[in-house]
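Researcher: Here's the sequence for the chain we discussed earlier.
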Amino acid sequence: MPGPKRKYNRIKIVLLEKEKTNIWLAEQLGVSATAVSKWCTNRNQPTVETLFRISDILNVEVCELLNKK
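Model: Thanks. This is the structure I predict for it:
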């Protein structure tokens, strides 16, 4: 039986803090809302390049988008 799924990013939390939605972020990035949803639930992870784009769009440091170990 697999262990608990590891959460690598905090995108969902940062979006909530910035009062933005998954759909808004998807539009800003030019990606599907499904892709952003998967990032927010940690089912998939964005590329490093995309993380930098997200940090620019949300005006946060990249490290704020990642969970600390």
